[in-house]
Design brief:
This protein has 24 helices and 22 strands. With 734 residues, it is α+β, with helices and mostly antiparallel strands. The protein has five domains: 130 residues, Four Helix Bundle (Hemerythrin (Met), subunit A) (Up-down Bundle), CATH 1.20.120; 134 residues, Alpha-Beta Plaits, CATH 3.30.70; 60 residues; 179 residues, 2-Layer Sandwich (Heat Shock Protein 90); 150 residues, Beta Barrel (OB fold (Dihydrolipoamide Acetyltransferase, E2P)). Strands 14-18-19-17-16-15 form a six-stranded mixed β-sheet. The chain is globular and about 105 Å long. The protein starts with a helix and ends with a helix.
Length: 734
């Protein structure tokens, strides 16, 4: 593997570690005393530091070292986690994310915020930080140079090297999870042996009889004796990556070494921690061992051959047991695959589905008797094709959790910019969505979250006067409903000021002064290009500024966005998106002698009305009576400016839309229900009002996929009919 490939892998692992860091900090905020969570956060930062050190990313190492040092004080119960410290840790995580991105993309990063956070972190360290700080300006590491003579030539230097000598007695008992995570005790022992004289004794009493032996079990224990001048902290650092995966007890006896014979040079004490690579980092990044018996026995024999004779160890300090062995925290093992390969696989599956539809069409044309072998085999082929499609799409599906975690930072930054207090609450962050949807949803969500804090929440003093908590809540939720993904952004602020919105629209000439608009119609004025209710320009977008961009971004994903607001209670933005951008289930329908497809997920029920159920309102509007309620009818052919059907004929498709609520769409007939492959119109042809995409049917013809929401809007709009009919005609005859 090339150096660049290894470095790319490091940055990919950093993304997972940063996700685990954000998750851990959120858990710390809820339960401050959970040391398992604290250890997990510490390991995330420490792992990033270790990998960065291997690639010489000094800036990243320095910041991570300061961050983990403060976190280590929390682990040692020297610092109490409070609101101020959690806020600092969150900001430190943000800076760490920025530095990782800067090093990965080779871009410049302003260090103003970084310097401020480092100073705040150092304020918790006091005088102890000077001993641990990595000073890369003063430190010169040259791993390619030859042996260095570190002999002492002066009396002053001789006095400085008479360091305190220590004898460590270490009891090391790996848990099963240690081997499952690819750690190898031999490498840990090798790292200890580099610090001084090491003797290793293996305890094999736990090995069961051969018939009952399970190679995946951890059955060996070790007692190690290390004679060195290293500190206990440096010794414990060797076991950093297996913390929580083993039982570790360390006791130490301090002694003073005898003076050397006259005329001999005193070897200098081992170099400080800052100049030594941490062996445990190498273990975590470079090993992937199986946990069989040989891998457990090998370390004892291998180290014993080169270790010095066992040294007596009389412990003065009591043993310090590590946390009990538990299942490892953090991301699950994953297989990294180039996204282009997944896309090619998805396209191939799409062609498979089209091929299956064509075969079905040809067999139907043969008019074979039902129940025949060929028909049965075809049904099995359909089921197999669907299973393959669902499996491939599951590969591309990802939870929205990483995206939601990024929004935590947006809330913090928006709160600081507006001098407001806000917290983010996430619900359903395990909901899986197509990766492309997640990537393209980041910008719209960012804008809406900023708006929710800036113009949705009241100032703390105002909230207190209203009897609300000073800390406002932004709720971000995701869920699967009716074959779609619903993402909601809710604030508990003052709600939309509809009078102000309407007045601004009238001032800008967007609405006639005598217009009588409903609440939903007023709310949707926010989506008009350039509309704003902000009284002055601020660092954050005002409610409505750029909301047309949000709407366009969501519509480009085949989704829609809506608003609901209650004065004094808050506002909710709802984004409805398709589960995938590749395949969908739909009804094949006829509209004005044209074959089209409408998504099944948008249809509540189908109705074949009788003449007495249809009622005329005004000159050209119709409603249908459905279980005592009157639902407006929209003729699909009329909306698309095609030859309209006879008013008394057709089938009604009952749909629920964000704009109009329940609406009945009239079509000529329904032919079939099938799975279709979505082909983008905008990238292959052009956008057509009322049409979201296209597909290829079993007979090889193109069918348009309709957008019910847009069809209803077309029925009530003007000025687009000529454009719609011309584009439809061009596409049909292309």
């Amino acid at each position: 593997m090339s150096g660049n490939s290894i470095k790319d892998t490091f940055f990919e692992e950093c993304e997972e570690l940063l996700e685990a860091l954000v998750e851990g900090l959120s858990e710390m905020e809820e339960v401050a005393g959970d040391m398992e969570v604290v250890n997990a956060v510490f390991r995330s930062v420490h792992s990033i530091k270790g990998g960065a050190g291997a690639f010489g990313l000094d800036r990243l190492v320095n910041f991570a070292h300061t961050f983990e040092t403060v976190m280590d004080m929390v682990r040692d119960s020297k610092l109490e986690v409070d609101e101020k410290l959690i806020s600092l840790f969150h900001r430190s995580g943000d800076i760490l994310t920025d530095i990782v991105a800067s090093e990965r993309d080779q871009t410049d990063l302003d260090n103003t915020a970084e310097t401020a956070v480092i100073k705040e972190l150092e304020s918790y360290l006091g005088d102890t930080h000077s001993d641990d700080e990595f000073d890369f300006d003063a430190l010169s590491l040259d791993f390619d140079s030859g042996p260095i003579d570190i002999g002492v030539t002066s009396d002053d230097e001789s006095e400085s090297t008479s360091a305190i000598h220590r004898i460590f007695t270490i009891r090391f008992e790996p848990g099963k999870a240690l081997y499952e995570n690819g750690h190898e005790p031999l490498l840990l022992f090798d790292a200890l042996a580099e610090m001084g004289d090491l003797a290793v004794e293996a305890d094999t009493s736990g090995i069961p009889e051969f018939d009952t032996f399970d190679p995946s079990d951890a059955v060996l224990k070790w007692t190690l004796s290390l004679s060195t001048s290293e500190t206990e902290e440096n010794v414990r650092d060797v076991f950093e990556f297996v913390d929580g995966l083993c039982v570790l007890e360390i006791s130490v006896e301090e002694t003073t070494p005898p003076p050397p014979p006259q005329g001999e040079k005193v070897p200098e004490a081992p170099v400080a921690e800052a100049t030594q690579p941490e062996p445990s980092q190498v273990v975590d990044a470079a090993t992937e061992q199986t946990a069989d018996l040989s891998s457990q026995v090998a370390p004892a024999s291998a180290v014993s051959e080169k270790a010095a004779p066992a040294l007596p160890a009389t412990a003065k300090a009591g043993p310090t047991p590590a946390p009990a062995s538990k299942e490892p925290r953090g991301p699950k093992p994953t297989l990294r695959v180039d996204l282009d390969r997944v896309d090619r696989l998805i396209n191939t599956v799409g062609e498979l589905i089209i091929n299956q539809a064509m075969i079905s069409q040809r067999i139907e044309e043969l008019e074979l008797p039902t129940g025949g072998n060929l028909t049965n085999e075809l049904e099995a082929y359909k089921l197999l094709a669907r299973d393959i499609q669902e499996g491939v799409m599951a590969i591309r599906a990802q939870p929205v959790k990483p995206l939601f975690q990024r929004m935590s930072r947006i809330v913090r930054e928006a709160s600081d910019a507006t001098n407001k207090k806000a917290k983010l609450v996430t619900v359903g962050d395990s909901t899986e969505v197509d990766k492309t949807v997640i990537e393209r949803l980041a910008d719209p969500l960012t804008h809406m979250i900023r708006n929710a804090v800036d113009h949705g929440l009241e100032a703390p003093e105002v909230r207190q006067e209203l009897g609300k908590e000073q800390i406002g809540t932004i709720r971000l939720s995701a869920a699967h409903r009716s074959g779609s993904v619903f993402i909601e952004i809710t604030d508990d602020g003052a709600g939309l000021n509809r009078d102000r919105i309407l007045q601004k629209a009238i001032e800008k000439g967007l609405v006639q002064p005598d217009a009588d608009l409903s609440d939903p119609e007023i709310d949707n004025l926010l989506f008009l290009p350039g509309f704003s209710t902000a009284g002055q320009v601020s660092n954050l977008s005002g409610r409505g500024v750029g909301m047309d961009v949000v709407k366009n971004a969501v519509q480009a994903l085949g989704g829609r966005v809506s608003i609901s607001s209650t004065p004094g209670k808050g506002t909710t933005f709802t984004i409805v998106l398709p589960l995938t951008l590749a395949v969908m289930d739909g009804f094949v329908i006829s509209v004005a002698k044209e074959t089209m497809v409408i998504p099944i997920s948008s249809i509540l029920e189908t109705i074949r009305p009788s003449a007495k159920d249809i009622h005329i309102i005004g000159t050209d509007s119709e409603v249908v009576s459905v279980r005592g309620a009157y639902v407006p009818i929209v003729d699909v052919a009329e909306s698309l400016n095609l030859d309209t059907e006879q008013k008394s004929t057709g089938i009604l498709l009952l749909v629920s839309t964000e704009m109009q609520g329940l609406t009945a769409l009239r079509v000529a007939s329904i032919h079939d229900q099938r799975q279709v492959v979505i082909k983008s119109l905008e990238s292959n042809y052009a956008a057509i009002p009322g049409v979201s995409a296209a597909t290829i049917l079993g007979d090889g013809k193109i069918a348009l996929i309709l957008d019910p929401e847009e069809l209803i809007k077309l029925r009530h709009s003007s000025g687009i009919e000529n454009q719609s009919i011309s584009k439809n005609a061009e596409l049909r005859h292309a």
